[in-house]
Amino acid sequence: MLKKIILLIAMSVLIAVPVFANEAPKTVIQVTGNSQKEVTPDVARITFSINSVNAKLEKAKNDNTQIANQVFANLKEQGITQEQIKTNTYQVDPVYNYEKEKLPKLEGYRVTNTLEIRTSIDNVGVLVNEITNAGANEINSIRFETANEADSKNEALKDAIGDALKKADVIAAALNKRVANVTLVNESGAFYHPIMMESRMLKASADGAAPNIPAGKVTVGATVQVTIELE
């Protein structure tokens, strides 16, 4: 019985060998897919600072708090909630007078309260006006972005893979073959470039009206490497 089993296995191997031996080798190619597009932002982040300087620390802190309270009141009138406002930094620094060949002399204190507002892009100009009218003396930056950054990146990845598959079809047609299988996909990364306006780019209106601050477009893209078998 054992001999019959061994004989059957041996015959199966002999029969199978020609099948593998006659299988045509597959052509493997690697293609890179890219995508890039501009999308319209729908969210703005305004970063601004309240700076107060005084010889006495308590006075500097109190002045800063009064301005901050007025800023909050103005923002509330514009429909901004506490959930849309966050404190980035609250900093107290000594102010020294430096004279040649003398030890630094303490002259007072600077209190800096840096905050950020998240709002729709339609309100940016009005809010900048309200913030500065309340006493905030520095607009650090305005960042325009999309509310669903992850969705934008995922869409860019889909487009990049589609681009890679189109290239594979072109190569396959030139070789009189067709795409048989995708064996590997490597993501090189999706990029997302919101528009950032720095303070030097912001221009206040001469008549005190709300400045016109165009949002522009957000650039989103991705790159992938795809390994494909042709037959």
UniProtKB/TrEMBL annotation:
Keywords: Signal
One of the protein's GO biological processes: DNA damage response
Signal peptide: 1-21
Alphabetical list of InterPro entries matching this protein: 26kDa_periplasmic_antigen (IPR052022), SIMPL/DUF541 (IPR007497)
UniProt cross-references to Pfam families, sorted A to Z: SIMPL
PANTHER family: SLR1258 PROTEIN
Protein name per Swiss-Prot or TrEMBL: 26 kDa periplasmic immunogenic protein
Organism of origin: Pelosinus fermentans JBW45
